[in-house]
Design a protein that fits this description.
single chain; 4 domains; 4-stranded antiparallel sheet; alpha+beta; Neuraminidase; Serine Threonine Protein Phosphatase 5, Tetratricopeptide repeat; elongated
């Protein structure tokens, strides 16, 4: 009996332990994730999980239970009611502050969410009884509480016990923009006593005031964005009345603000054009032009680091078209920002009820949250604040969700904090622990790479940088490794350089020798002579292209060889560029690369020959093709060395490599310009007109080709559909039934006639083209 009892107890203990070990993810009603370099969502362990809710009922229960005796003596249960909570804020003691715009008060809770006191009525600095009216934004410093008293158009300051300190009145109307109503909705303050206010209807930036209400300046106005054509149109063709009645080019407004310990302002906005905001994310734009969150220095310049895969703007992969009922589309709507421990900061997406948390370099650490009514979800998040290691998020239902940091979240915070404290060896250990939980955490790879760099292990550091697509630290590590290599082989480098130029000079001398022998007219020339002659054209385009046509110094064979060399150069470029020049390359598409070279050549040759035939050009189709291929020789001559050099350069030297490639394109265009002018015997102006016309003709040919292909595809699809229909019915009777309908007969006849007409026209066109080619080619 005792043995059986012991077995039952042991079994019960194992069951309890098993149930206790069930992952929290099994009950968390949202997904925690990050984004990879390709913009795809990657699941992550939960960094925060919802633990409890702060509601009017929860505060009331603690009040009735006597959690705070002083509060019980001063207030009644009616004072606990939540009217409309507008903002949530915390202090270093983890007290929680809630602004209530309907009950016109600020409720202060202790760290256990029991009521401490309520700020509502006070005696102002003139000795008059006063009260708050519609308070919204809150800010709490080490010693004071700042309240945006919205309806009274002022900022009211209290001490940490709720005693009145002073009022920051509305600034004088002469400093405010025309048609602007001062409506403070968010507030912050620095250690020097300056007060920073976000006004709902002011679009000139953050208002900086002194404590006496005197105006300092506007900080960080949002840029107005419009193109040059719109400016010209408005200034030349619209009257003042039309401009006033039309679209107003005004900067966007900020909606929230907070400040860090160094005096930098973090501001958010939700009035940016959603399409432009999303375009900036997709383009990985590191500027602040269409950023919903900024970090402003005292001069109003944005200094926020955006070094992650995508700028910190909330959701990356968004739907643009609603494919289901109640589907959420478009860019994130950012309404608040909060500064957390260890350099972390978070923004909330009101549209999706999600929190996005970043480090001080702008890397996305994790995102979580979702629409819904379960604990941890919300209908619309309005405000966010950190309470120590916890996160408080206010929804529009007067519910504050408390999120507890998990073990994984603790590891992330510890790694970031040790990095900030320069405890790099310890931070590496935390990063390695993080990777055991989540091998998609890119900041861990970067942290390890930086530690390896400091230890002088540059090659290993570069490997970890590659895993995180971190080009900046990769470049730094490679520069150090290259320096070591140069120091090691310092005596051999001059030898290699001299040898290279010696071989190059010998090659050029041999090419020149072959070209001199080619001055003698021959009916047939070798492929070597034809290809080497292209090097003469590089520096002598006028007589070079003249001899190419009239002295038969080149041919289709030689031109095609140069074209093949150019194709090989572009394929090499797509496959062989250095990591810093193409960090996101997942493998070259060789066929597309080849097509990207051949298609422009074919279009150019066809368009130029067709157009110059109409403008009395003397060059044949063969001449245009040969001239074009000989003119593009600078491309492989510059692309190949630039691609080779890209494997040995750092970020600061990329401009030189790109300059070399750019020189090749400019050189090739100049050769093509003069080559066309020589073979057609055109003057400068006529040549310029025909080249521009050829470019337009290339676009027209592309359009016709796409249209023709689309038409053939539609006809083929229709015929195939008819075939499948008849095949599925499977009998001659069904065929008879199909053709018994007049509409089906008409459609079938039209389709057949269209197919026949297309092939007849194509045949005639090819015949005429052949005749024309034979005529001009003689």
């Amino acid at each position: 009996m005792k043995k059986r009892l012991i077995k039952i107890l042991v079994l019960s203990f194992c069951i309890v332990m098993l149930l206790g070990s069930i992952s929290a993810s099994a009950i968390v009603p949202y997904t925690t994730y990050t984004y990879d370099v390709n913009g795809k969502m990657v699941k992550s362990p939960h960094a925060y999980v919802s633990s409890t809710l702060i509601t009017a009922n929860s505060v009331l229960k603690k009040f009735e239970a006597g959690a705070n005796k002083n509060a019980s003596a001063l207030y009644t249960t009616d004072d606990i009611a939540f009217g409309s909570i507008e903002d949530v804020c915390t202090d270093e003691e983890e007290n929680v502050y809630l602004s209530d715009s309907i009950n016109n008060n600020v409720k202060v809770l202790d760290k256990n969410y029991a009521l401490k006191f309520i700020i509502s009525e006070f005696i102002n600095d003139e000795g008059v009884h006063d009260s708050l009216s519609g308070p919204t934004g809150l800010y709490v410093s080490d010693t004071e509480i700042y309240v945006a008293d919205t309806k009274n158009k002022r900022i009211v300051i209290f001490d940490k016990l709720g005693n009145f300190v002073c009022i920051v009145p509305e600034p004088s109307s002469d400093v405010m923009p025309a048609n602007s109503i001062y409506t403070p909705i968010a507030v912050a303050a620095d250690q020097a006593g300056r007060v920073y206010v976000v006004s709902q209807s002011t679009n000139y930036g953050v208002i900086s005031l002194n404590r006496d209400g005197s105006f300092n300046n506007f900080i960080g106005p949002q840029k107005v964005s419009y193109n040059a054509f719109t400016i010209l149109w408005r200034s030349l063709f619209l009257s003042d009345e039309q401009i006033a009645a039309g679209e107003k080019f005004v900067p966007t407004e900020y909606n929230n603000i907070t400040i860090d310990s160094e005096g930098f302002l973090f501001v958010t906005t939700s009035s940016i054009d959603a399409a432009k905001q999303q375009e900036a994310i997709t383009a990985r734009d590191k500027t602040a032009d269409f950023a919903p969150v900024k970090k402003l220095n005292p001069n109003g310049s944005d200094v926020l680091r955006r070094n992650g895969f995508y700028p910190p703007s909330g959701e990356v992969d968004v739907n643009t078209i609603a494919t289901a009922e109640n589907a959420i589309t478009g860019a994130s709507v950012i309404v608040d920002v909060a500064l957390g421990p260890s350099g972390m900061w978070s923004i909330i997406d009101q549209k999706r009820s999600r929190i996005f948390t970043y480090d001080n370099n702008g890397n996305l650490l994790f995102a979580f949250g979702d629409k819904g009514e379960q604990i941890g979800q919300g209908t619309a998040f309005n405000a966010i604040a950190y309470q120590g290691t916890k996160m408080l998020v206010l929804s529009d239902l007067n519910i504050i969700t408390v999120y507890e940091r998990t073990e994984y979240g603790d590891l992330v915070a510890a790694a970031l904090q040790n990095t900030l404290d320069q405890n790099y060896d310890l931070s590496v250990e935390y990063y390695k622990s993080i990777l055991q939980h989540n091998n998609n955490y890119d900041s861990a790879y970067i942290g390890i790479a930086q530690s390896l760099y400091r230890d002088g292990e540059y090659e290993e550091s570069m490997k970890y940088c590659k895993l995180a697509y971190d080009t900046e630290n990769y470049s730094i590590a490679y520069a150090a490794l290259r320096k070591q290599w140069i120091e090691k082989y310092v005596y051999w480098i001059p030898v290699v350089i001299v040898a290279f130029f010696f071989i190059l000079s010998k090659c050029m001398s041999y090419i020149s020798k072959v070209n001199k022998k080619g001055l003698v007219y021959k009916e047939k020339r070798t492929l070597k002579e034809e290809v080497f002659y292209a090097f003469h054209i590089l520096t002598h385009p006028f007589d070079g292209f003249w001899d190419l046509k009239h002295e038969k110094r080149g041919s289709i064979k030689g031109a095609t060889t140069i074209l093949i060399i150019t194709v090989i150069a572009f394929v090499y470029q797509s496959m062989g560029r250095g990591y810093l020049f193409d960090p996101y390359n997942e493998g070259a598409n060789i066929m597309m690369t080849i097509l990207s070279v051949l298609l422009p050549v074919v279009l150019w040759v066809t368009a130029n020959w067709c157009l110059t035939t109409l403008f009395d050009g003397e060059g044949s189709l063969k001449d245009v093709y040969v001239t074009t291929c000989y003119a593009i020789l600078p491309l492989p001559l510059t692309i190949i060395p630039s691609v080779f050099a890209s494997n040995f350069t750092v970020l600061d030297e990329q401009g030189l490599v790109n300059l070399l490639t750019g020189i090749g394109f400019v050189w090739a265009f100049m050769l093509l310009f003069f080559g066309v002018m020589v073979i057609h015997d055109y003057g400068l102006f006529k040549n310029l007109i025909t080249i521009l016309g050829s470019i337009i003709a290339m676009a027209f040919i592309m359009f016709i080709g796409i249209l023709f292909t689309s038409l053939v595809q539609k006809i083929a699809s229709f015929i195939y559909t008819i075939f499948i229909e008849l095949k599925l019915r499977g009998s001659t009777d069904s065929i008879g039934e199909f053709f018994a309908k007049p509409l089906n007969v008409i459609i079938t006849v039209v389709a057949v006639i269209a197919v026949i007409a297309i092939f007849v026209l194509a045949s005639k066109g090819m015949k005429k083209l052949k005749e024309k080619f034979g005529k001009v080619g003689r």
